[in-house]
Structures are given as structure tokens and as C-alpha cells.
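Predict the 3D structure for this chain.
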Amino acid sequence: MRLQNILWIARPITSRACRFSVYLAMLVAGLAPVAPAEVQAATMAAVSYIGLNNGLWNTASNWSTGVVPANTDTNQFIVTIAAKPVVFDRTGTTTINDLILSNSLQLNSNCNLSVTNQLSLTSVSLTSNGGNFTANGPVTAATNLSLTASAGARIVLPALTQITENGYPFGSLQANGANSLLDLSQVTTMEVDNIFTGIQANSGGEVNLRNLLSITSTSGHTASFNASGGTINASKLSPGPSSIQVRSGGNLLLGSLNLHNSTVTLSDAKSTLSLQGDLSTDITSSLNMGYDTTLLLDGNFSNGLTNETRFTASSATVQVIGTSRHTLEVAGLDLGAIDPVNNGNFGFGRLVVGQSGSAATMTLVDFIDNGNRSGGTEALYLFGSGGSDGLSLLGGSTLALNHLDAYDRINGNWVSLQSLLGGNDRVAFDGGYIAQQAVPEPSTLALLAAAVGFVLSIRRKR
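Done. Predicted structure below.
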């Protein structure tokens, strides 16, 4: 091929792929003795932060090689930060291959750092104030961490599966401020000690731990959750001894919650604790729910408390969802259709069964003596809250009284729900039904029918 013909072909072509095709043609013609830069292998460089000057990432003299690490087509970097803390001040998005971090790294606003290969975190304070930190490759170590996303920042570690906190004085997981996200969605286990300060989501921030299955402690330390106007999603976790606070309209999602040596506090309107399973309390625990707070429950409610001062919910809402059958332990002193006082008498402001378009069934039980039986059974009191009556049945849901007394404040007057039945098995109420007993599920009816048929067949053979 003649040189002028090759040059004529290359002249209007600007894309890298096309230029490379032209280069191959030139190579065949023997006219390209040197490979172009884009097909040369990138050079991998190991660089350490030495911090001789101002503590900033984007200052060349702060690095062992005199070069600010930032991947290009020809240069890629393995970065170690150990000796001194670093402020990441390089605007835009910077990419590096590996990061070995054992000190403090703070990202400024609009300064984004992406780690494409391996990440190691040991005794680390990683804070982002409006910048984004992403590590898509494997995390080879995650020990003694303080991770904080603030001012709309995102810290995303999709390959991190385990966190260990052991003697680090600043250990915590936090998201602070609207749209701030700490995404640890693949973490399944955490091990903490008595110095770990907990998991926090504040003022619109979100901590995503949706696959977390266990938090264990080397020292019996209580796990701490604080959703103060933010969201913590640990919807598969059933924690042990815990300190739980949901405030300022925050939202905490957990699995089941077995309260032993634990404290749960919901304060401020619209604060919500959402459980994907059961809630149980014992005499070592306390449950305090303030005005217009909500416990959203897809499971059973078992109350083992005997001291009314450790249970406050007379202006809060308990809402039961899910299609499976649920039970609710009644615990109050049965004083009839009057205000029971008695520190709230283990009652609720509102009991909501089901959701619009999705029916649920709640059955009252009295399995536990909460100190209020007085020779009979205990009772449920629903005080009403926010101008609404105490009981709401949505989407065709059913409250089964199970021959227990329950009292609802309707239009300001206390009413016995048993009296509303009037000897009937079931009556319509609100958007659902009050019943004496829950109607068996179709699968249960089928089993009963099969059992009856089996018994009858045996009798016929006799």
C-alpha cells in the first residue's frame, strides 16, 4: 500500500478505534515502527503519602514519587496512606487502582475518588463532605472503621462483607444530611467492642445495611442505633442487647427484635420503627413510644413487662401488616370501659390492622401474666391519638378478640369491643371486621377437612 493512500484514509478519521485500524494498515505496510501510546501497556506505580507540605492530596510534593496519583491510559497507581492524614482536594473524579488506607482520609465537596481494584481499611477514619468515594473491587481488610458520609456525599462499598471493630476509639458508621448515603449493602456480619459508638443516620442521611445478619460483641457491648431524621436499613438483622433511638421523623428497619437488657425510644412525630418479624419484651427491657410515632410490625407482639413505667405507647401507633396471622399480647388491668390511668396500662394510642388493599389478621392473646390479671384475664386499651379513634381496620382486616376484653375510645367515649359483637361471631367495623375468633386460613381448613375424612374412612372400615 502506498503511503499517500494511507494518509488519505487517515485524514478524516478521528476516533481511537479508527486510528488504530489505520495504524494496523501502516504496520502491515512496514510504515509503523513504533506502537502508538494507546496500545501500550499501562505502567503500575506504587506511591505513598509522605505529607511534607499542606496535607492535601493534589500537591505533588506530598507524594513519595513527586507525582499526584490519578490513573491515566499510561499510568496507574497503588496508593498507600499510613503516615499522615490526607484531605482529598482534587475536583472531579479521580481513579486509582488500589488503596491501602490506615489513617484519615477526608474528601472535600465535589472531589470524587474511585478505587477500581483492591481496598484495604485498617484503623481508618474515612469522611466525605460532599464528595463520593466508591470501591468496586475486593476489600481485603475492614478493621476499626469510622465511616461518615455528610453533605450529600456517597460512600459506596459494594464488595465489603464483614466489619470488625476492636479497640478503635472512633469507630462508627454515619450518614449525615439530606441525600448522604453510606452504602454497605453487602455487609453480613459485624463484630464490635465497647468503644464502637454505633450506627447513625441524621437529618436525611441513609445507612444501608440491608443484608446485615448479625452483630456480635467481644465484650457484651450493646449495639447502638440512632436514626435521627435519617434512615437505617438493617431489615434482616435481629440484634441482641441494643440501645435504639428513632427521633425527628427518622426510620429504622430491623428484622425481629427480642428486647433483653435493651431500650427502645421513639420520639418526635412521624418517627418509625419497622420490623420485618416479631417484637418481644421482657422485664429487663423498656419500650417508650412518644406522640405520633409508629411501630410497623410484620409479626407478633409479645409483652413480658410487668412495670407500666417501662412501657409508654398511649399516644403512639402500632400498625400490623403482612398476610400471615399475628398475635398481640394484652397486658393491661381490666377496669372496664373507663380511662384506666395506670401509667397507660400497657395500652396504645392506636392499633391499625392491615393496609389499604392488603388485609391482615390480628388475634389478641394473654399468654403472659403482666401482673394485671387479678384473678381474671388482662385487657387491651386503645386511647386514640391525633384526633383518630383507637382502632382502625384497613382493607378488610380482622381483629380477633379471642374472648378477651379490649376497649377503644370512639368519639371520645370508651367502648367495649366485646359489646359491639352483641353475641355475633363477627361484625363489620371501620374497613374490616371484629371477630371472636379468626377465620382459619384456607390451608388450615383443607388440613382439617383431610383429617376429618381420614377419621371417617377409618370408622367405615370398622
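Residues 3-39 form one domain.
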